[in-house]
Amino acid sequence: MDPLVEQFAKSQPAEFARVLAAHATDEVRDVITTLPPVIASPVVARLGSLKLHDMLNRLPDDVVARLLLVADQSALIAILSHLPESRYASIRAAGPDEGKKALARILDVPLKTLSSIASPNFIRVEAHATCGHVLHGLTSNDELSAQSIVVADSLGKYIGIVRPLSLVPASRARRPVSDLMERVEPLPGQTPVRAARDAIQWHKWSTLPVVDLENRVLGVVDYDHLLAAIHSSDPGVPGLDDVLEQAAIGYFEVCSDLLDIGIGRREL
After folding, report:
1. The pLDDT of residue 266
2. Do 194 and 91 share a structural domain?
3. How many other β-carbons are positioned within 10 Å of the β-carbon of residue 7?
4. DSSP assignment, residue 5?
């Protein structure tokens, strides 16, 4: 590895990850494999969800084990939320002897994050769209009575949310949606589901957007679905979810990877 490239990855992991995103997955895997794990880990955490998922599937178990052992909390959540449980045993076995106990603690309990439960079934509009245009596109009463519509820019990055009924008055037909939207803090996709329960946004909204580290919209989650996901886990088994929950509580104040594709999603 060129020392200058290594220094770039170390000093600017987010920018380095953006450069890697333009390359084939096998090339990304080769770069991550040649970087020291302590430098590679924060870069991995900043890859887009699709790229991260594909790249982890091609990384050898011993490399993944070393990434997990040196990862900080955000990188740990990013990696674990994209790893299938079927690989846990082989990753533990491939880890260095001195790290096997730590890997066991990390991998003993599956980690459920918001990115794994976010629904792709939501309405997204661009900020410059007029209220009249959006209202015309809401073809059913269910859509008109929806709790919120996600407002994003042309790159799919989250900006805010707007209530459908606020679009109805005829006097607002020519106004852009951005005039009526509220800049509600989104939920980071890497957050454990139990930590998300304490977000203050639930006091006003029953459905909230979920975003990745680049602030791209992954989907939405409603409070009832969140509670169901929490209750489906065994609350009596302590593990990584419990360890990370407290660290994630404050994450909502500074929040910034699933797929940034439109399956099941309708845009107006």
Report:
1. 45
2. no
3. 11
4. H
Judgement on whether residues 174 and 253 belong to the same structural domain of the protein: yes
pLDDT band at 96 (very low <50, low <70, confident <90, very high): very high
Please give the Cα distance from 177 to 237 (Å, whole number): 46
Residue among 96, 99, 68 nearest 82 (CA): 68
**Greatest Cα-to-Cα distance within the chain, rounded to the nearest angstrom:** 69
pTM above 0.70, yes or no: no
Query: Helical H runs in 21-130?
Result: 25-34, 37-45, 49-58, 61-70, 73-80, 88-94, 100-107, 114-117
Q: State which amino acid sits at residue 110.
A: P
The enclosing domain of 170 has a CATH number of 3.10.580.10
143-157, 209-223, 246-260, range with the lowest pLDDT:
246-260
157 and 230 co-located in one domain? yes
Phi, psi angle pair for 50, to nearest 5°: -65, -45
Identify residue 161 by its one-letter amino acid code.
I
Residue 130 amino acid letter: T
- Name which of 145-154, 172-181, 183-192 the model is least confident about: 145-154
Length of the chain: 268
Pick from 108, 125, 157: which residue ends a domain?
108
